[in-house]
Amino acid sequence: MTIESDPSYPAHWEADVVLRDGGTARIRPITTEDAGRLVSFYEQVSDESKYYRFFAPYPRLSDRDVHRFTHHDYVDRVGLAATIGEEFIGTVRYDRIGPDGRPASAPADEAEVAFLVQDAHQGRGVASALLEHIGAVARERGIRRFAAEVLPANTKMIKVFTDVGYQQKRSFEDGSVHLTLDLEPTAESLAVQRAREQRAEARSVQRLLAPGSVAVVGVSRSGAGVGAAALRNLRDSGFHGHLYAVNEAVTRDLLDGVRAYRTVGAIDAPVDLAVIAVPADRVPDAVAACGEHGVQGLVVLSAGYGDSGPAGLARQRELLRQVRSYGMRLIGPNAYGVINTAPEVELNASLTPAPMPVRGRTGLFTQSGAIGIALLSALLRRGEGLSSFVSAGNRADVSGNDILQYWYEDEATDVALLYLETLGNPRKFTRLARRTAAVKPVVVAKGGRHTPAGHVVPGTRLSEDTVSALLRQAGVIRVDTVTELVDVGLLLASQPLPAGPRIAILGNSESLGVLTYDACLTQGLRPLPPLDLTTAASPEDFRTALAAALASDDCDAVIVTAIPWVSEHALADDLADALREAVAEAPGKPVAVVHVELAELVRALSATRAPDAGAPDRPAAGGPWTPAAPAATATATADPDRIPGYPAAERAVKALAEAVRYGQWRRALADAGQVPEYEDIDEAGAAAQLAGLLADVDGGAVLTLSDGDARELLARYGIRVLPTLPAPSPDAAARAAGILGYPVALKTTAPHLRHRADLGGVRLDLTNEAELRRSYEELTDALGKPAELQPVIQAMVPRGVDTVVRSVIDPAAGAVLSFGLAGVASELLGDTAHRLVPATDRDAAGLIRSIRAAPLLFGWRGSDPVDTPALEEVLLRLSRLVDDHPEVIGVSLEPVVVAAEGTSVLSATVRVAHPPARGDLGPRTLPSY
């Protein structure tokens, strides 16, 4: 809700949130139009809750109360409501107070806060969500503390305050508990907030993947069409819940053997999940019927939304608004569907025909239905099972972030595979991926270097290489193709992580062994010389050689290569059994098989056990479908001792190399590093300086600081920028050199020449005035007049390696720290490394070592190594600056000369702006694109 006639209405405070039970609610400011809603809400609150709120019997609100609780200035008096549809389910308000406890205005920085939650919605985390949002609003309005009076018997509300993680004081006064909360976010409050976010979003996905009942809306009477296909797939998969078909023109009790109804509302039982397969213009009516019936979630298969142009995009936004108004979550629109192979569920609410994928330990998320089909087919063909599958289509609501929240705690999922076309919230995705990757592999194939139709996401200025670097920093295994996604997933799902990069190679083809050896070198692995068993090798020879390699301390993984025998089919099963026996004798190391035209060997290596009992048979005509009885044998299970096979050495080696790198990342987590503290940092002074600089800057404007202001700000964080003096004439240049002392450098600072020594705009090591004047004349004769060149004089610093250190605030990814060597070669080759802010000491050390030109810093070809610890300190201090002060949206230190001892920052550019009202540290919200 917004009030267009009220310019003070803070529309940016509106937010959708996921509650503890997985449902959603909308939080928004209370307005003067809410009087009726407030009265209705209060009438539904129990007398006990009213007593706890007002400390006395308070059966109804007076007109004065209603006016007070609906009229706010959104500065000193603020009220927020949690709503589902048009109904209030909870409210919170604060009133700014002075030291005497009476109403006050700024600069008073304390406020009284009070909550009231409808009894039917207590226990859903409504108050906790409201507290997060009212706290963010208060901080925005300059309030630093909340005070609350709570009756001792109101233990639920006391727990809301005490569990939030803020620093607080508690006392007992005049029969009530007095609480004071410091609203400055702490590590504990952030951890509490993110833990609540994870539990709520995981629960919302769990409700979609494990419903007790499903209704398919849009099932044709003829049995044709998407809706009928979805119904058949649900029925034939052996779904263990209740299943209903919905068709507004149905004239009989059954459709395709399933109980049929004209509307969802006519179903005389709860419906947890609705699959909607009607034309886009009829979807709103279907959504409304589901919402009124209390459906918890929707899978919308219908197309015609963001995928069909601007009108469809507007329709998609309205769909999301409507779905959330009922507290539901949405997969789609234009979705392919969801699958859950858990034996107690066996849900196939997708367009994948029965039989659905076998039970496995891999979770799969895709944004593309076509790619989803290809991935499901590839995994099935190679014997890999799934724990769950979600194809989200246009991803208007449920995204890869939500699925990661679910997989993080899902004991049935060991490997997470995601095909993403966009990253809706890269900052949150990398945070969630890092946490998930710490316990299970996360493999991502990101397609589309543009935004596909139907996907509305915040823009990003980061290159694909930068995005890849940031994902890898978060532990994500980034691959380029869906084939690599399957290859890597197969290895990780079936094999242990390698302890290192040493690879043993053995097989019956010397040539294939050499190709594998070369591929290992290309991927940065350390292969041992291939062991050629000759083409006469028997399965027993393979078993003996593999067992010996696995038992050796000289290797960390083994690649077996195999070419066909004359009688391939007869020996495939024997070879597969021999390899499994060798692995069983010496487990603990990964094994991959490279084969040439040995399809039967792949089948044997990935053999699955057939199910003991299939899905229920199609019912006889007139016989209603009934849920299958839960049985662990109802789903085929992938064989746990399978070995992945690959038709090319490069594919096997690439998968193994990704596993090696991921294993190294996991081991490095044991010492993840720390963000260092520097005693000489003046955080308060920097904050005051920035506040003064931005005092007269409009909200959306960007200010580039003058050289003096930039040097002053950076110096507060221990980054000293070498001063320069202007040289508009030869005489001025001579005077400047006299002040700084010879030797000096003469530089142009014109934008088209700055940092371009290759264009001749720099003269170094000028030891006297004569040299300076001569160089000045040469410079102006060659490049232009002094007014155009803007020359400056700077003292010389010890020679070293010229580097570039930058930080930028990306609108989607957040603060990013970048490093590379100065010069056109690095720019041309894109030899720049990136890390997310805040960077740890390990991040800084890894950052400077991850560029291809890094050997130049460490004594390449006999040169002296430079002071990399001093360079790391510059990176860490800059990281602290941009992390502490979101007003700093861009910094470029170029060049930073790294000498044998110490560093010298020769030039700095700093851009600042008013920070956004909320960021990743703000309250929990669902994205709204």
Q: Report mean pLDDT, rounded to a whole number.
A: 89
Given helix and strand content, the structural type is alpha/beta
Beta content: 15-25%
Output the strand order for the largest sheet. 1-2-3-4-5-6-8-7
Number of strands: 41
* Helical stretch tally: 27
The main sheet comes to: 8 strands, mixed
Shape: flat
Kindly report the oligomeric state of this protein. Answer: single chain
Short précis:
This protein is α/β, with parallel strands linked by helices and 929 residues long.
Would you write up a description of this structure?
The protein has 929 residues and is of the alpha/beta class. The protein is 35% helix and 22% strand. The protein has 27 helices and 41 strands. The protein has an eight-stranded mixed sheet with strand order 1-2-3-4-5-6-8-7, sandwiched between helices. β11 and β12 form a beta hairpin. α6 (187-209) packs across α11 and α10 packs across α14 (482-494). It is flat. Mean pLDDT is 89; it is low at 1-5, 608-623 and 630-640.
Key features?
27 helices, disordered N terminus, 929 residues, flat, alpha/beta, 7-stranded mixed beta sheet, 8-stranded mixed beta sheet, single chain
Task: Give a topology summary.
Layout: E1 15-18, E2 24-29, H1 35-43, H2 47-54, H3 63-70, E3 77-84, E4 87-97, E5 110-117, H4 126-140, E6 145-150, H5 155-162, E7 168-173, E8 176-182, H6 187-209, E9 213-217, H7 226-236, E10 242-246, E11 254-255, E12 258-261, E13 273-276, H8 283-293, E14 297-300, H9 310-325, E15 329-331, E16 337-340, E17 347-350, E18 359-366, H10 369-381, E19 386-391, H11 400-409, E20 415-420, H12 426-437, E21 442-446, H13 464-473, E22 477-479, H14 482-494, E23 502-507, H15 510-522, E24 526-527, E25 531-532, H16 539-551, E26 557-562, H17 568-585, E27 591-595, H18 599-605, E28 608-609, E29 637-638, E30 645-646, H19 649-668, H20 683-694, E31 703-704, H21 707-715, E32 725-726, H22 730-740, E33 744-748, E34 762-766, H23 769-783, H24 786-789, E35 791-795, E36 801-810, E37 814-821, H25 824-829, E38 832-836, H26 841-849, H27 868-884, E39 888-898, E40 903-905, E41 908-912
Parallel strand pairs: 5-6, 9-10, 9-13, 10-12, 13-14, 14-15, 18-19, 18-20, 20-21, 21-22, 23-24, 23-25, 23-26, 26-27, 27-30
Antiparallel strand pairs: 1-2, 2-3, 3-4, 4-5, 6-8, 7-8, 11-12, 16-17, 16-19, 28-29, 31-41, 32-35, 33-34, 33-35, 36-37, 36-39, 37-38, 39-40, 39-41
Helix pairs in contact: 6-11, 8-9, 10-14, 11-12, 14-19, 15-19, 16-17, 17-18, 22-23, 26-27
